[in-house]
What does this fold into?
Amino acid sequence: MKRIGIIYGSTTGTCESLANQLATCLGVSDNDVHSADKLTDALVSAYDVLILGTSTWGDGELQDDWYDGIKVLKQADLNGKTVALFGCGDSEAYCDTFCDGMGILYEDLKDSGCTFLGNRVSTDDYTFSSSIAVVDGTFVGLALDDVNESAKTAGRIQAWADELKHSL
It folds into this structure.
């Protein structure tokens, strides 16, 4: 079985909470859920599958915990690794930068040699005006709005987790 690590960036705790919900759905141990500010090359090397989550801040910026974490990932050997992304955002107040943080992670890693999984999430059930996390008409990972659409969060996480489990 492939070893799965979930890495999240979270200032307010929202993304951390979502990471833990995802871990439960995937059967991932609490010991395999880590904050992005603790990311090291050894941690990256320990996993076959990396599930990376971030919130979006300001005008579509990556969450602060990821600034050093993304440097670690860019320097790591991701060839043969599987990467899945999830992001949280506010589709009402920040409808023009919805889940852009997830899009930044994707852009930074798309040429790293990793294989993306869970990266064709339909935009049909979402309300937003723009997102760099949308590539070729679909989200590059699981987009979540736990502020305005919290009633949809658990279902979205479970459906995406089921898709990941089926593909792994």
